[in-house]
């Protein structure tokens, strides 16, 4: 609630605004339960889809708990082959599965070729869980304190997602 929720909402809006027409996206809210913007799956980032997303984002409120495990599972369910999850949270898992290792196991069983990037806002995030989800998902985590500007962190995370240094690198040593 308050400043950190507004920061998370601003970060989400900035990411949607920066999406190119070739991008596909969906939004998943995860307070007491999980709600998706496009229940039938990701959509191309057209002007109309971005406009609908902006309205949906403005309608979000900070009520209920934080259903992190269910949100991660829903995100992976919506991506059929490979893709990227950008996970924004300002809280700890408080609804549904809350055990760190169980959440990681659920994510790992679903997201074999899905890149996972996390964005934690405020001081009340489960940094260890976000770090582990990102590391196992081949992504990174960005954190923003309540007194920090969100624009720089969003731009940095967007660059990492759009222009990764390397993907699916394998090293084989013979002998």
In short:
This protein has 175 residues and is α/β, with parallel strands linked by helices. Helix content is 42%, strand content 17%. The protein is built from six helices and seven strands.
Strand order of the largest sheet: 5-6-7
Outline the low-pLDDT stretches: none
How confident overall, as mean pLDDT?
Answer: 84
Q: Please estimate the helix content.
A: 40-55%
Strand content: 15-25%
Distance between the termini: 57 Å
What about the largest sheet?
Answer: 3 strands, parallel
Radius of gyration: 16 Å
Structural class: alpha/beta
Number of helices: 6
Shape: globular
String of helices and strands: HEEEEHHEHEHEH
Q: What's the number of extended β-strand segments?
A: 7
Could you explain how this protein is built, in words?
It is a single chain. It is globular and about 60 Å long. α1 packs antiparallel against α2 (47-58) and α3 packs parallel to α4. It is of the alpha/beta class. 42% of the residues lie in helices and 17% in strands. The protein starts with a helix and ends in a 13-residue tail after the last helix. The strands form three sheets. It has a three-stranded parallel sheet, with helices on both faces.
């Amino acid at each position: 609630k308050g400043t950190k929720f507004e920061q998370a909402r601003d970060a989400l809006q900035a990411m949607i605004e920066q999406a190119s027409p070739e991008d596909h996206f969906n939004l998943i809210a995860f307070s007491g339960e999980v709600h998706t913007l496009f229940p039938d799956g990701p959509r191309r980032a057209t002007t109309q889809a971005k406009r609908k997303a902006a309205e949906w984002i403005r309608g979000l409120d900070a009520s209920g708990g934080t259903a992190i495990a269910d949100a991660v599972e829903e995100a992976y369910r919506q991506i059929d082959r490979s893709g990227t999850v950008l996970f924004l949270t300002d809280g700890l898992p408080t609804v549904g599965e809350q055990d760190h290792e169980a959440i990681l196991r659920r994510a790992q069983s679903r997201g074999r070729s899905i890149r996972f990037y996390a964005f934690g806002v405020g001081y009340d995030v489960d940094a260890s869980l976000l770090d582990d989800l990102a590391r196992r998902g081949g992504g990174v985590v960005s954190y923003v304190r309540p007194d920090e500007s969100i624009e720089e962190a969003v731009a940095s995370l967007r660059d990492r997602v759009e222009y990764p240094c390397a993907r699916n690198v394998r090293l084989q040593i013979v002998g």
